[in-house]
Design a protein that fits this description.
By secondary structure, the protein is an alpha/beta fold. The protein is built from 14 helices and 15 strands. Helix 1 links the parallel strand 1 and strand 2. 42% of the residues are buried.
Length: 372
């Protein structure tokens, strides 16, 4: 059988995407090339890892457009040799041009999280301009059920598949628990950029209400500092004493930090996916997240391994956090349910889903089935 020759254009070598790329590269009868638009994202300073032979950084530069980085690729790779091109970003000269002008026999897949709702007329116009080439794609691979519904509404005639992020979770499964799961004091963990989009201000306000009510809890914050100092001003001095900040942490050290918590909280106002939810369920943690977190729709079963609450709803967040403080057994029960669910979310399983989609697209029988 002739190997599949696949090219992927993505933005940056992020750890969670590289997990699935590694799994695909290990598949028999598949030749993979991955092209990144930049070496490192300025707002996500992951430690630079050695690239694999199939990974390449494209030359070029970027500028800001409507709050997003738009990449200009100054020297294009030879993409025509690939049977399928998978494009993970619309904000590049390569994607905008290639979708419109690729070879007739080559297949193109647009692969992305849900589009973010734009609040101004100018931003909506820019988004409409940038997304118009999606109509030239042979298929859309949506990262999660939320994205799948988004693209179904906006591009109903294009074949569509649902493949959420599948990450390497072995270190989270293997990490021994550090915290006492039966302890009276509940440790809540947040991991991500400490910015308004992540809802950290709502989390600190909610946590402050719990401490003012005399409930035994601690909050562990992990991630880029950003707006932390301003947000800590929302809490009382007594509450600030019960908040620990770990800073930005190398992904390799995250399993140990997750093992120090009882409950994971992601109160985002918008998160197209949220790989930290994958990591939290593998660590055996209950998850509280908002309905604006893509991963919540696929990984959090309400009342089973966590709670999905409305974004910006302080009262509902307080209620959910209080539940785990007052019912210690639920921390163990929900956590066990999380870990069971996580067993299906390996990179190898994700690669199997990708292979199924690639075969369907190549034989032109793709259909809006939403591969699970």
């Amino acid at each position: 059988m002739k190997p599949l020759d696949i090219g992927i254009v993505s933005v940056v070598p992020s750890p969670y995407q590289r997990d699935i790329f590694q799994a695909l590269a290990a598949c028999d009868n598949l030749i993979l090339s991955v092209y990144y638009l930049e070496q490192q994202s300025p707002d996500s300073p992951w430690p630079q890892a050695t690239l694999q032979p199939f990974e390449h950084i494209l030359p070029g530069f970027w500028f800001s457009l409507g709050g997003a980085r738009f990449h200009i690729v100054t020297k294009w790779p030879s993409l025509n040799r690939h049977q399928v091109i998978i494009l993970n970003s619309l904000t590049s000269s390569l994607t905008q041009t290639y979708l419109r002008n690729r070879p007739p026999k080559q297949k193109a897949i647009f692969w992305a999280e849900p589009l973010r709702t734009q609040q101004t007329r100018i931003r909506r116009a820019i988004q409409s301009l940038l997304t118009s080439p999606i109509n030239q794609a042979d298929a859309i691979v949506a990262i999660g059920s939320w994205a799948n519904a988004c693209y179904q509404e906006q591009f109903p005639t294009i074949p569509r598949f649902n493949i959420p992020y599948h990450c390497e979770l072995g270190p989270f499964f293997q990490q021994p628990t550090v915290v006492d799961r039966t302890a009276a004091e509940t440790v809540f963990l947040f991991c991500g950029q400490i910015i308004p989009r992540k809802g950290v201000d709502i989390l600190i306000r909610s946590f402050d209400a719990l401490i003012r009510a005399g409930l035994p809890a601690r909050l562990l914050l992990v991630g880029r500092r950003a707006d932390l100092d301003r947000m800590l001003g929302l809490a009382s001095p007594a509450t600030r004493e019960r908040i620990s900040y770990q800073g930005f942490v190398d992904p390799i050290d995250l399993p140990e930090l997750f093992a120090k918590a009882h409950v994971f909280v992601l109160p985002s106002r918008h998160d197209g996916w949220g790989v930290v939810v994958n990591q939290a369920i593998a660590a055996g943690l209950p998850v509280i997240c908002t309905d604006a977190v893509g991963a919540g729709l696929d990984l959090v079963k309400d009342g089973v391994n966590g709670f999905r609450i409305p974004a910006d709803d302080t009262e509902r967040l307080i209620e959910a956090m209080k539940f785990f403080i007052e019912d210690r057994q639920s921390r163990s029960d929900f956590g066990a349910a999380s870990r069971t669910l996580a067993e299906e979310w390996t990179p190898q399983r994700g690669a199997e889903k990708w292979l199924a989609v690639l075969r369907k697209v190549l034989v032109q029988d793709a259909h809006p089935a939403g591969v699970k």
